[in-house]
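Schema walk-through. Below, the input block comes first and the output block second. Nothing else is stored per chain. Lengths vary across the set, and this one has 127 residues.
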Amino acid sequence: MNDNADIVRQAYGAFASGDIAGLLDLLDDETDWSVPATLPQGGTFTGKDGALKFFEGIGAAWETLRIDPEAIGDLGPDLVVGVVQGSGLLRGAGPGTYGAVHVFTLRNGKITRFREYVDLDSALGQP
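--- output ---
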């Protein structure tokens, strides 16, 4: 069985390769997904269907979005933290970059909760 940090690495890898179905397979059926409204894809989503709506929101807001993990580590038996940099092209607004911390809760090999905390030096799409 994979450890929790490996499952999160798999999720980042699936996102990077565009394998959203594979990423959704790593989620619990009742997962809670929360992203701040400072991001165009922000919101609160429930379940795999809700997480899919989140990823559809990324596609609607971004021409391209790359998430580069700087560090991934376990913080106890059910928490994993990822420190990431997001960068890409916002539809109609040009380049956008931001830093974030992702906090994952896992149980029985599935992601049950995702929380994103964002650090913006300036508004997305602004120099």
